[in-house]
């Protein structure tokens, strides 16, 4: 019986490379000349530091574009609230690993709502989907890609 696992993983080495590239980009950009702005990588978090709130928003866009260039889904990025200390602003960006329980329930409900001939079961931080045909599993993949869920999914352990 064909089966697959739906997981949410982020390649943290690629995230680190994207942070390094974003630091290089900031050092060459004209609008960041003479401004103290930096990205700090502390696994699995990235701290953005700048002199203003507007610059933090620009830095988020820079980081998002660098992640896209490195084939890391930007949906895995969770942006915190900006905080000001003196004249400096900072922002925490975390990267989601694993599927949380409530998101897993949404995924299972979405799959069952489509009335596909598959069974979906939550197993820890992943969702196992089994069906009679490989085409049904591929339909589940298309369904999750079309649904605008705020998390990125990968499909592993595909067995025939």
Automatic annotation (TrEMBL):
InterPro entries reported for this sequence: UPF0234-like_C, UPF0234_N, YajQ-like_sf, YajQ/Smlt4090-like
CDD domains according to UniProt: YajQ_like
SUPFAM superfamilies named in the record: YajQ-like (SSF89963)
UniProt KW keywords: Nucleotide-binding
Annotated NCBIfam families: PRK05412.1 (NF003819)
Role noted for this protein: Nucleotide-binding protein.
Family recorded in the similarity comment: Belongs to the YajQ family.
Protein name per the record: Nucleotide-binding protein MTCD1_00482
Taxonomic path: Bacteria, Pseudomonadati, Pseudomonadota, Gammaproteobacteria, Alteromonadales
